[in-house]
Structure formats: structure tokens, C-alpha cells
Design a protein that fits this description.
This protein starts with a strand and ends in a 6-residue tail after the last helix. The chain contains six helices and nine strands; from the N terminus they run E-E-E-H-E-E-H-H-E-H-E-E-H-E-H. A hairpin with a 7-residue loop joins strand 7 and strand 8. Strands 1, 2, 3, 4 and 5 form a five-stranded antiparallel β-sheet that branches. A four-stranded antiparallel β-sheet has the order 7-8-6-9. The radius of gyration is 19 Å and the shape is elongated. By secondary structure, it is an alpha+beta fold. It folds into two domains: 106 residues; 91 residues, Alpha-Beta Plaits (2-Layer Sandwich), CATH 3.30.70.260. Helices cover 32% and strands 28% of the residues. It comes from Nonomuraea turkmeniaca. One of its GO terms (cellular component) is gas vesicle. Its main location: other. It is found in: Gas vesicle.
């Protein structure tokens, strides 16, 4: 059935990738940059006879984007975006949407996403009041994090014990300030909420194409 070109995300034209960077698939292909004017796409070749649906594929997709976001601006595309060939990457993706992508990349300059997740300690909060406690705690923490973030988004709880689940777009040089706020709340709510801080990562919650692929740019 031949091969297609898997697209991970969009980057500035001058981005270089490590020669040992590899992508999705059973035999991961070399990561390349397809360039057009001032932007580029991170891609790798993939066989078309094998669906990209494993946990390893998803982890490689996210891992490449998150490692990129720690260094340079990147616009993540949804998992599973495949085009016919390298020419199609330019003709169908980069060229028609060049100005939109370039503007979005400039907005991401020096910024990355961080996720703050807190979970209630078992039996620390009665089940019948978890929803009310979650709303109050989310508002309190969000108010404290707003000064160190550019944008924020409240994620839906993934499990009942979830206390807070926030995505934040943050200037990378303010990561220390973000960590200080989270550490302060971890101390303040010790014994009631356990915290995790993830990032820097690609701005999945703040880029349309991360959720629905390239459809928004058509």
C-alpha cells in the first residue's frame, strides 16, 4: 500500500531536529522538517498498511512534541494526521495556512503548556461534597496561578477523586514562579490534596489543531 507522511506539528522554518529523533510506527522513521517560507512541519514517513493506534505511537507523538516545546514554539496537530507525500504537506497544509500558522507560532514564542493536577487524599473529603470542594479549590488555585500564566483552561476531572485539573500557558522563563505557587498549595493542602505538575509540553489545550487535526485550517 506504500507510505504516507505523518505530521506531528508546525514549527518555525529554522528549526533543526536531532539525527536520531524517531517517530511513530513499528519501524519508526527519521523525523524531518518540511519547510515552506517561514514555517515548517515535523514529519516522518509511515506505512499505510498499519493503523497508528497503539499506546507507543501516542507516546512517541506526544514525546516528540513535548521535547520540541521545551526548546522552540510548536503547534501540535492531533494524533494520527497523515498526508499522501511531502509535496502534499506543503500544498495542502503549509502553503494555504502559512500566515495563520506563522502568527500562531509567534504567539507561542517562549511559551509552553503546563498541567497542574491535584487529587484528594483518600477519605480526606467526603464523597458527597467532592463536587462542591472541587469547584471551590479549582477557583482558589486558578486565582493564585493567573498572575504567572498567559492563558488557562479548566480540564474536566478524569476520576472522582480529582481535586483540580488545570492547563496553563506559561512563559518558559517563569517556570520557577509556577513551581513555587504549586509548592505553596501542596504545603497548604497537605494531607488533603496530592499535586502533580507536568511540563513543559506542547500547547495541546491552546491550539485548535491539537484537538481536531488540520480541519480548522481548511
Amino acid at each position: 500500500m506504500g507510505t504516507g507522511v505523518y505530521v506531528y506539528g508546525l514549527v518555525p522554518e529554522d528549526v533543526e531536529v536531532s539525527g536520531d529523533a524517531r517517530g511513530v510506527g513499528d519501524e519508526p522513521g527519521e523525523i524531518k522538517v518540511v519547510r515552506h517560507r517561514e514555517i515548517g512541519a515535523l514529519v516522518s514517513e509511515v506505512p499505510l498498511d498499519r493503523p497508528l493506534d497503539t499506546a507507543d505511537d501516542l507516546l512517541r507523538h506526544q514525546g516528540l512534541l513535548d521535547a520540541t516545546a521545551a526548546e522552540v514554539p510548536v503547534l501540535p496537530l492531533r494524533f494520527g494526521a497523515v498526508l499522501a507525500d511531502m509535496d502534499a504537506v506543503v500544498d495542502e497544509l503549509l502553503a494555504p495556512h502559512h500566515d495563520d500558522f506563522l502568527a500562531a507560532l509567534k504567539e507561542m514564542e517562549g511559551r509552553a503548556e503546563y498541567v497542574v493536577k491535584g487529587r484528594y487524599v483518600e477519605q480526606a473529603v467526603p464523597r458527597e461534597v467532592i463536587e462542591a470542594a472541587r469547584k471551590a479549590d479549582t477557583r482558589t488555585l486558578l486565582d493564585a496561578l493567573t498572575p504567572v500564566s498567559v492563558l488557562s483552561a479548566v480540564r474536566k476531572p478524569s476520576a472522582e477523586p480529582d481535586a483540580v485539573h488545570l492547563a496553563l500557558l506559561v512563559e518558559r522563563d517563569r517556570q520557577d514562579e509556577l513551581e513555587e505557587v504549586v509548592a505553596e498549595f501542596a504545603d497548604r493542602w497537605a494531607g488533603r490534596v496530592e499535586f502533580r505538575l507536568l511540563g513543559p509540553m506542547a500547547a495541546y489545550d491552546f491550539v485548535m489543531g491539537a484537538r481536531r487535526g488540520g480541519d480548522e485550517w481548511d
